[in-house]
UniProtKB/TrEMBL annotation:
The keyword Oxidoreductase applies. InterPro entries: NAD(P)-bd_dom_sf, Zinc_ADH-like. Its EC number is 1.1.1.1. PANTHER family: DEHYDROGENASE, PUTATIVE (AFU_ORTHOLOGUE AFUA_2G13270)-RELATED, PTHR45033. This is Alcohol dehydrogenase. It comes from Sporolactobacillus inulinus. GO terms for molecular function: alcohol dehydrogenase (NAD+) activity. Transmembrane segments: none annotated. The keyword Oxidoreductase applies. Keywords: Oxidoreductase.
Amino acid sequence: MLDNDQDWAAALNGEKVDLVIESIGAATFNRSLGVLKKGGTVVSFGASAGDEIALDLRSFFYNQWNLHGSTLGSVEEFHEMLDLFRKHKIKPIVDRSYDLEQTGEALSYLKQSAQFGKVAIKINS
């Protein structure tokens, strides 16, 4: 798992990857392609940082990359995913957390498309 502030190529020791799970969108999509092996696959399921990208189409087809879009699955698949997260101790990246009263500030931050990971709203019961 890579951090948005990292030099991704350095973090991967110059290696390329077969698969990128891309959940951010415009802010990271092309960086994701930059670490993808020839013939590799990007699975995109989120666009919290914007849903329009500039794509170098020639580079895309020369590298024979695959792109798969995905949406939420069934309730059963959701529970399987949660089990997988628990089993492998996978934790989501939370960029920032805001109190409920700061929701406007959180939305302003999202509009900047600068986040890497989730922006959470804390609701106290």
